[in-house]
Amino acid sequence: MPGSAWDPLQYERFREQRAQPYRDLASLVEPAESMRVADLGCGTGELTAWLHAALDARETTGIDSSETMLAEAAPRRHEALLFQRADIRTWTPAAPPDLIFSNAALQWVEHHEELWPRLAGLLAAGGQIAAQMPVSDDHPSHTVARELAGEPPYRDRMAGYERPFPVLPPERYAEMLFTLGFERRLVRLQVYEHLLPSVDSVVSWMEGSLLTPFRERLAGPLYERLLGEYARRLRAHGPDSRPYLFPFKRLFVWGRLPTGRVAASAATRRQARPMRRAASPSSRSGSVE
Description:
The structure is a single chain. α5 links the parallel β4 (99-103) and β5. The chain is built from eleven helices and seven strands. Residues 268-273 and 278-288 have low confidence and may be disordered. It is 35% helix and 19% strand. Strands 3-2-1-4-5-7-6 form a seven-stranded mixed beta sheet. The chain has a single domain, classed as Rossmann fold. α6 crosses α11. The chain has helices spanning 8-11, 15-26, 46-55, 67-73, 112-122, 140-149, 154-158, 170-179, 200-207, 212-217, 220-237, and strands at 36-40, 59-64, 81-85, 99-103, 128-134, 184-196, 244-256. By secondary structure, it is an alpha/beta fold. The chain is globular and about 55 Å long.
């Protein structure tokens, strides 16, 4: 699964806008003494380090599949803050975490009907799960990219690439958390209003995330051509105002198991099996949007 093409510098251009949902997700977590935390899709590790300190955790492990992101995270590593290269679909912790935390990563992993029971089954008794997933797949920033992927001259070079959108309706996560035995649950859809200099700033935003698979597959001049056409079509969707309001929908899901209880999915098997691996060359299983 490719991970080296992710550009930390490009991704960090909108650091504050990306950080706010992370902090909002962290506000849902109920702190406890000596927590063992796993941050799935840790990216550069900057926010993982913040979470570790905010929770005064005993141990926090950041998980990502991108070598370039983990190289940025490495200087932040210390005895209680670790970083590990792994695929969310197959990752298994050395010890059950008290909190599985994931900000803007699970939307890149398919088969959520399997994924969420698997993750729940990895939690320690009384553990918590907290995830934020972008759900702006119907915004022109996403629909235009899908259009271009299926058109010449990009289609042949994209080699059948198709970005799946595996996120389920919000109510389905509430149902799953209930079925899995989470005593306390919260599912919330929130729209963030990002005021950007112009619609061209959306192109820069997406270059750090959604458009990375295009950069992986297209030669330099062809990728630049795609960026120009992508920007032109975004402007056509309008309004091409300055400043430009970029509304971004995000889904927050949090749950806590009863004290002394593991998830229902783990009642008869303490170790959850790895998920099936889908043919998804775009998946980074990292913190992207």
